[in-house]
Write a structure and sequence with these properties.
Elements (H helix, E strand, L loop, with lengths): L2 H12 L3 H20 L4 E3 L3 E8 L2 E4 L6 E4 L2 E8 L1 H7 L16
Antiparallel strand pairs: 1-2, 2-5, 3-4
Helix pairs in contact: 1-2
Length: 105
Amino acid sequence: MTKADLIDEVSRLAELTRKDSEVIVETIFDSIVRSLRVGDKIEIRGFGSFRTRQRKPRVGRNPKTGDRVEVPAKKIPFFKPSKELKDLVNTGSEAAPAPPWPAVG
């Protein structure tokens, strides 16, 4: 699913215009990015949590030349799915149970 597909799905389920749905999806993504930038953790019950992990500086190698390259420390976004999400994904081809969050619309 792409961002455009997600916007279309929100528009269809919430019976909103595509423009309004785009604003909603963009606002959610922007809020997540803004929170991660300042080091906050985002927890969405029944879905999962987003946080950052710190990577230490290290010495890497340029695969083309074999030269040593200093790789600086950096923050990496990390998503940890909830148990409910894992269970929903792993139900197989059976009829999937309703998600633990309320339906929109």
